[in-house]
Amino acid sequence: MAQKDKQGNWLDSKGRPVPEEYIRPEDKKRDKLVESIIKKVQKLSDRLASEKADIVGSIEKYLKELAKDNKVREGWKGNILLYNFSQNLCIERRIDETISFDERLQMVKTTIDKWINDKLKDTDPTLSKVIAQAFSVDKQGRINTAMLLKLKRIDIQDHEWKKAMQLLDDSIFVKSSKMALRFRSKNTDVPEGGWNEISLNFNDIQVDAKEAKNAEQ
Q: Any residues with CB less than 8 A from the CB of 135 and at least 6 apart, and which?
């Protein structure tokens, strides 16, 4: 039921007490509906959280035992695909890391600026432009991480450049790490059938009109 004070008055959105006899029947019916559904959804959410923890634990246990059985020290930080024997069921575990840079990034820029002034002397404007873009920031003041990492792919055999790239490596740290799990089953009804995603997103689960009508009864 809606929030009430000690006298049994219903509290509106601003916390003002309203005697129950003044609450319209449709408001009471809507209140009951919303609270009933939210209660059910909260239980589903709690169960999903519990099941996810159990699934993640089972996968981690398997990977740990696999490494131990093969006498390999493995951290399993990368993305992993697990198939059943018939290869018609698949679990994909992805680790998405968000990286950032510490205060040493400023030293990287200073070192590269000096290298450009000393070595390029405007003879390679294209490279200078690429470097400038790498250190540019957007309207929110965020560095373009992808462009910065591209600098490491440039093959320049120069001591100062390599020093700057080492500083860039040292400045990188993992800001956040998020695990994502995806589950698929293969469509075996047709030859060369594709993979179907097993959705755990509430809004992606399709409910036909017949199922909805049966639920009403």
A: 109, 143, 148
Listed residue (171, 117, 124) closest to 145, CA to CA = 171
136-151 pLDDT, tens per residue?
Answer: 877 767 788 888 888 8
67, 76 contact by CB (below 8 A): yes
The three-state DSSP-derived secondary structure of the chain is CCCECCCCCEECCCCCEECHHHCCHHHHHHHHHHHHHHHHHHHHHHHHHHHHHHHHHHHHHHHHHHHHHCCCCCCCCCCEEEECCCCCEEEEEEEEEEEEECCHHHHHHHHHHHHHHHHHCCCCHHHHHHHHHHCCECCCCCECHHHHHHHCCCCCCCHHHHHHHHHHHHHEEEEEEEEEEEEEEECCCCCCCCEEECCCCHHHCCCCHHHHHHHHC
**Strands of 195-197's sheet in order across:** 80-83, 89-101, 172-186, 195-197
CB-based contact 86:193 (threshold 8 Å):
no
Mean pLDDT of 104-116: 88
User: Partners of 80 in the beta sheet?
Assistant: 93
